[in-house]
Amino acid sequence: MTEKHSADNAGLGDYDFPSRKERRRHEREQIQARAQADVTRSVAPINPARYESNPKKKVSAAKSVSGRGRTNSVSAVPSSAKLKPAGKPAKSVKKNNAKPRRNSVSPKKNSGMKNDRRPTNSRPSTSRPGNKKNSKVTRPGKNPKRVGVWIKRILGVISGLILVGIIAGCLTFLISYYRLEVPEAQKFANAQVTTVYWGDNDTMMGKFAERNRTIVDTKSFKNSYIRDAVVASEDRTFYENSGIDFKGIARALWNNVRGRPTQGASTLTQQYVENYYTGRNTGYTGKFKETILALKINRQVPKEKIINDYLNTIYFGRGTYGIEAAANAYFGKSAKDLNLSESALLAGIIPAPNAWDPLVSPEQAKSRWKRVLNLMVTDKMIKPAERDAATFPKVQEKKPEATYFKGTTGYLLQHVRQELITEIGYTEDEIDRAGIKVYTTIDPEKQKMLEDAVGTLPENKPQGLRVAAISIDTATGAVIAEYGGEDYQKIQRNAVTQDIAQAGSTFKPFALLAALEHGHKLEEKISGSGPMKIGDTYIGNYGGASYGQVDLIQATKMSINTAYVRLNSEVGMDTTRQVAISAGYPKDTAGLDQDVLVGVLGSSSPHNIDIANAYTTFATGGIRRPAHIIAKVTDSAGNVLYEADTTGTRQFEEENISELNKALAAVTESGGTGATAGKLGRPVAAKTGSSNDNRSAQFVGYVPQMVTAVSMYQVGEDGSEQSITPFAGVREVTGGTLPARIWLAYMKNAVKDLPVEPLFSYKDKDKENKIVPKEKSTPYQTAQVPSPPPPPTTSRPLIVTSQPAESPSSEESEQPEP
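User: That's the sequence. What structure does it adopt?
Assistant: Structure tokens below.
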């Protein structure tokens, strides 16, 4: 067998050798011959004959050989010949006039080889000197062994790339693991229902929630059915694994590579990370982050906490998040009371709770229930006898989504929410996910009484009529009843806390108190004649009445406009305004900043609650206790987070408040504008108020224990303010008419259980107060803006444009203000 040597490897012709050894020996001889030739060329003299132009001369010994780019030549030596000593020229080189062919070699005839080997860089010689074309060189076919070598090389490169990728992946993973911090729980992970209760601290009024969730401590449960059931169903190796499932990851990756729906491993820890920290992840980057967090959290967080947080965050269907809300929605009980069958059912439907709800797909729900029980037996969580004794649980009907904001209750919840934000400091977002318990001050019984009182209005009331009413406990400032509207779902504005209407004559007592604070007495006389002119404005009394000199009690009882404008000119509008602020009006009340004397007639527009708040200060003897609807706030465990301050702050001297109460009590007497309140049958003080053109009608009155204010106004379809359309048999809707009737209808029932007590009197100052007020904090005596000089209303005759009219009846004796 011969070994064929390819010219592709050595650059020579094709030779057949008897063995590989012969071929190797031949190659070594060739290499030695070339090396010897190089040495010979380096010392041999240049032969000029090589450059002769005669091509016909033949080389006697052998054809000349030249290296690429060299002019020296050397004859080829047969493989059997011995090499000449280095440095001596070869004898076979002769002069030749023919121009030698470069890089060619001719073998000797007696070489014993079939073909001569040619160097790689040589050109093939012609078969005859006269041939024009070179003879073709026969190239061998591809060597199968060399193909195998290339395949090995390619596979080696691929393997290297894979190895580099693995190393890079490991480095990326390690860097990400140590650099990625465990984030804060996502916004909704701990979101719980904020529950609002009535004042009896037992009955729920409503809820604020973005997610229906109540967080519980499952570690405290007497039995661990729900914990074991979830572990058996969702992650049987939960207590042993590192937080991720490598087999699951590989399976998911393979499915994704094949174009199937993207999926990921689903260990319980990874589900916990997704629900608690990252949100839903579908891309590879998100899954990579989720995997790292799962590993990290598994090392940092105890398994017991992971399963507990998982059970409090997972979605169970029916709009519920967490096991507590789910137990209530499906079985009407707390999670701690779930039995084995109920726990197995809830655990089984976790992957698709809406589709596998027993009321939607009973067969699928039962199949999942059996699966969980069998797994619990396999994992020795329960005994086979317990599984056999279990029966498929019956779930309750799905309750319709609760609408807590319907009817009048919606306005109460709006007020609660507003106070949580403006007074306590919660944000909108916190309210919806804080999971706090809010205990209101609303008395359910009195709330029903107030709603019934407003309901006494006839059904033919004008379209656009709005009624606001509030009742406050004077001892604490607590709102015990509130009517903000008929149905919050129809009109989402609370008439008590959001809408405003002109105060009318309910503002006048602030000027009277300012005068008392500055040394004036109720017995002093003041002119009530009218109308009167201030600048370009005419001021008249109701019905065009004109009064002579009247004391301050009479001026208050009949609500004489001209008398109070003159009184306000004595004390200054700035002082009157500061008294209103000290009593309870907000500084930013609409219209309160007007520096005109007629402002005493009630051109400012407070909220209904602001009027009641100010009059509560009168009822308490000068102690301001701000109205509030929230008694306290606790967390889900019952720890008190907030409690209303009911101490109060003294704003006015008791003696002056005692005098003020005398004047306001006269209003409820026969002939007074608020005589309707006098029918209550106990000591009472009140004040009526009507705005210009009867666009608002106000009535506020109080007994020592309770203050109630009723406001009435009318708005057009475009929301504009309108005059109240007369109805219910009255010619004009003023404060002393329909608002006073509502007030009386409510108070008759509301005070039945209250002892009869006299209004605050200075002579009772030694009586021990239940709550000691703080010192006065608002120096209302210092006016912020100087008042303009008062017009001369007493030194010169007033301009009278009409004859005095008789005093109006007590029920319709309210004078309109300009």
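The mean pLDDT is 78.
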